[in-house]
Amino acid sequence: MTTPALRLPLPLLLAMLTAIGPLSIDMYLPAMAAMAGSLSSDIHHVELSVSTFLLGFALGQITGGPLSDRVGRRPVIFLGLILFGIASIALTYVSSLDGLLLLRGLQAIGGGLAVVNSTAIVRDNFDGTDIAKVLSMVAMIMMAAPLAAPLLGSLVLSFSGWRSIFGILSAYAAILIAIPLGVISAVKQNTWIDYVVRIFSIAGVAMPSFWLGILIILGLLIFSQARFGEPWMPPIEYVSPFEDLIANLSQLIWPAVAVGYRYSSVTMRMTRSALLEVLREDYIRTARAKGLEEKVVINRHALKNAFLPVVTVIGIEFAFLMGGLVVTEQVFNLNGLGRLLIESVLYQDYNMIQALVMLMVVVFVCVNFAVDLLYAWLDPRIRYS
C-alpha cells in the first residue's frame, strides 16, 4: 500500500517545489535573444541574469535552512514562494536590463528559501523506505525539469512573448502557495487559522484585481500624505533602479500583488471546499478508525481525491491571466495583451485583433487539454479511449 501513496499530492508538491530552480533557470533560455532586443541590450548582458539567479538562489538556500530550523518550515516556504511569485509577475512588466537583473536576484532568493526545505519536509513526514522512494521521485522531477523547461519555454515563446514565461512561473508559485493554505484551512476547520485563511481568500475572490489596484494606489496616497506630509503613488513611467530603486520596484510590485492575490485566493478557496467534502467520506472515516495518523489520512487518502475541481479552477484562472486583465493594465498604465486588444479594436487593426484572439483561443485549448490529461492521472476511473 505504500507505493500508491507516493503518487499522491504531497510528494508531487515537494517535487514541484524542488523543480522551481531548474524551471526558473532553463525555461527562459530560448527567449534570451528576444529579451535582448526588447530590453535594448545584447545577449551577453542578458546572460548575466543567469549568474544573478544562481547567486541569489545560493543566498536563499544558505539563509533558508537555519531560518526554518528556528521558525518552522511552513513560514519560510510561504515567505520564499510569495517573494518568488511577486518577482515573477514583476518580471512580466520589466523594461530594462537593470530591472531584469534586480528582479531575477529577488526571484532567486525567494526560490532558494522555499526549495531548501523540501528535503527536510521529506524527513519530517516519511520514514523507512518511504523516504528513499519520495526522494527518488523528487530526483526524477529534478532530472526531467531541465529537459522539459527549454521545450516549454520555446513553446510559450512561439505563441506569445518572453514575458509570458515569467507569468507562468508566477502562476506556478501561486499554486504552490494556495494549495497548502487551503489544506491547512480544511484540516484546521473552525479554528482561528481557518478564519484567517477564509477571510483572506474570500476577500481575494470578492475583489476584482483592478479594484484592488485602485485601492492600493489610494492607500499609498493616503498613507504617504498622513505619514510624510505629501502624497505618493506608484510611478507610471519607467525609472532605472540605479536612479530610484523604490520607484522602479513599486511600478512592478503593486500590479503583481493585485493580480496574484486573486489567483491564489480562488485556488485556496477551492482547495479548502473540495478537501472538506472529501474528509466527510466513509473511506476517510474508515482510515481514521484503523488508527492511521491524521497526516497520513490527509496526504495518502484525501488530497488526491480533492484535486479534480482544484485542477479545473487552476486551468481556467491561468488562461484568464493571458488576456483578461484589461482594466488592471489600464489602472497601472502597463502594456499587456488585454490593453493591446482594446487598442487594436479602437484603431480597427483587424489583423492584430485576429492574431490576439487566435492566441487566446490556443492558450485556452492547450490549458483545457492539459487539465483533461491530469484528470486521467488523478482519477483512475477516467479513461480516454
Structural class: mainly alpha
**Which CATH top level class fits?**
Mainly Alpha
Task: Summarize the biggest pleated sheet.
Answer: none
Distance between the termini: 28 Å
Amount of helix: over 70%
Number of domains: 1
CATH topology (level 3) name: MetI-like fold
What is the N-to-C succession of helices and strands? HHHHHHHHHHHHHHHHHHH
Mean pLDDT: 76
What's the number of helices? 19
Please state the CA-atom Rg, rounded to the nearest Å.
21 Å
CATH architecture: Orthogonal Bundle
Strand content: under 5%
Shape summary: globular
| Low-confidence residue ranges | 1-8
Q: Superfamily at the CATH H level?
A: MetI-like
Please give a handful of descriptors for the protein shown:
385 residues; mainly alpha; MetI-like fold; 19 helices; 81% helix; globular
Summary of the model, kept short:
With 385 residues, the chain is mainly alpha-helical. The chain contains 19 helices and no strands.
List the helices and strands and how they pair.
Elements: H1 2-5, H2 9-18, H3 20-26, H4 32-38, H5 43-46, H6 48-71, H7 73-91, H8 97-115, H9 118-125, H10 129-159, H11 163-187, H12 192-206, H13 209-228, H14 245-279, H15 282-289, H16 294-321, H17 326-332, H18 337-346, H19 350-378
